[in-house]
Amino acid sequence: MPPGFRKVADRLTDVAPGWLVEVVRPAPAALRWEPMLRMAVVVTTPLLVGLAAGRIALGILPAMGAMATSMADRGGSYRARTIVMGAAGLAGAVGYAVGALARGHGWWTVLVVVAVSVVSALISAGGAAGSAAGLQLLVMTVLGLGMPLSGPPDINALSFLLGVLTALMLALARWPLHPREAEEAAVIAVYRVLGLLFTEHDRGTVAAFDGTLSNGYTTVLNARSAAMGKDAERTRLVALLNQASLIRNALLSLCQEDREPPRELRFAVDEIVDSLAGGREPSVREHGSDSPALRALYSAVRGATELASGGDVAGEQLPYEPLGRGQRFRAIWERVWYGHLARVYVIRLALCMGVACAVSLAGWFERSYWVMLTVALVLKPDFGLVFARAVQRALGTLVGVLIGTVVLLVVPYGPALLIPIAVFAALLPYGLQRNWGLMSTFQAPLVLFLVDLLTHGGPKLAGIRLVDTVVGCVIVLLLGYLPWPASWEAPVGPRFADAVSATADYLRHAFDPRGSRRALLRRKAYDALADMRTAFQRAVTEPPAISRRITTWLPAMTALEQVTDATAATVARTEHGAPPPSDGGIRALVTSLEDIAADVRAGRSPAKPELAEEESLERMNSAVRGLCDTVSEEHLDTGGRAGAP
Q1: pTM (2 decimals)?
Q2: DSSP H or E stretch at residue 426
Q3: What are the boundaries of each domain within the chain?
Q4: What is the tens place of the pLDDT at every residue in 320-337?
Q5: Are 271 and 285 a contacting pair, CB within 8 Å?
Q6: Can you tell me the distance from the alpha carbon of 432 to that of 411, in angstroms, rounded to the nearest whole number?
């Protein structure tokens, strides 16, 4: 058996158990019922209208437009949600029109599909909105090719847009009355998690806070960047997030001094949460201490209480570098044309979609446009690693098809089908929160019911759907996975090296008395750590052939987080009376971190760092030495593949 096929055979047996665990494990605490109910309403309402009018086809496209738009809603500020959902809906309408116009033109259709695949892959590099738009452009092009509906393509595209507008109106209905609702909720969530840090100092709680803080900054700043002129309230929310970061660092510094934070400060943080939610104003008394860390903590909490009480914002520093529209376009352009992985993805997607379209035109499979849909969804680059998605898609579709078959056998054709359609539409957002295979489990029967309403195909549609899905997954594995060795690995090594470099940049300016770039570089460092953790979490869901090797990075990741936290804690103490470290000692630490990053990228074992022995740098030196030791062990454990992409 060829090595590539043996690799696939070995991994197939390892994906199913992990997927089944995802299906049966308890639901997340943050399960959101509102999007589930909204999805059910926007999908079933146009279908109900179509059935009442005696022309179900009239309701199919609005239902699809509403579903595509709602699935693109991942939360955030109202402005950010509008951009992402609107981009997905508009791209879907354009895609449907292109597909409908290209239908029936023989092999020229393959060229159209390849061209749309290239455009889809390119615009997917444009952040959240580009990713959603690229996916819907390709998906609706395929549906336009495979689902012949009566009426001209432009009118049908407008019908699709009607569903898009309906979904947008429902999702954004509270915007006029509560314009800052999402931003305020994000800041309150930050302070709720911050309260846990007063009693729980473990790495998991710190990581949870960092993730919540990053989401808070993203939500507030995405809304703030659109405000005309100065928005005092959103500026105050940014300042509150800055104070939360200072409290976190002071708590870490206090922990390093083996001291417990005063109970009154924990109560003060709880009062801040109540105040932000509309309760009474918080307060904290003055306090003097010989501990720099304790002084830093009192100062940070006092600043937060003043802001929560309506105090003025003084000298706000944004932890992100504002980018103009031209700068954003240039950044996207550079990712597309100068990013090797982006170019490879364009080639892989165009190749697989071209082959899938050719298979569809050959007429070997009934409703073979489902083959192209499977390829488009499985190859989406920001949904995780390809192999796991391909197998989970097949498994999820198998389970979903079995469920759909039972429903089609039991529920008679007609209005009664709207009940299971509503149920599975509501479950789609839940599946998106959990697992790709679980989402496919809910999506497969939903698609079957929609097609059955249109064609009255009955239970036989289930077998057709399953065969087409398996064929699409096979195309992805044979043409989009096996020939591309870089797709076999998770990019944990490069993300780790990027995080080390970002930490070095932060450390270089962390003790600058002017502090002009410190907040920005600290946020970049923690964002790089979050990207590293995301790549790691995706990789550990892969089969053991990948995940066993990837888990050896965990000690090194923990050591790097300790370096960043030690830096932030030392800064907090230094700002409140502790002796500052020397410039030479800081330069030695920065050089050591830069060397570690370069060694990881080159796949070398790093040399022992030469650091300045100073009392003020003791904890930072210890953290950097620990990082060097764990990276050396990681390099040996992976057989020299520490820098593998």
Answers
A1: 0.72
A2: helix 418-434
A3: 3-172+339-488, 181-308, 492-637
A4: 555 555 555 665 555 555
A5: no
A6: 26
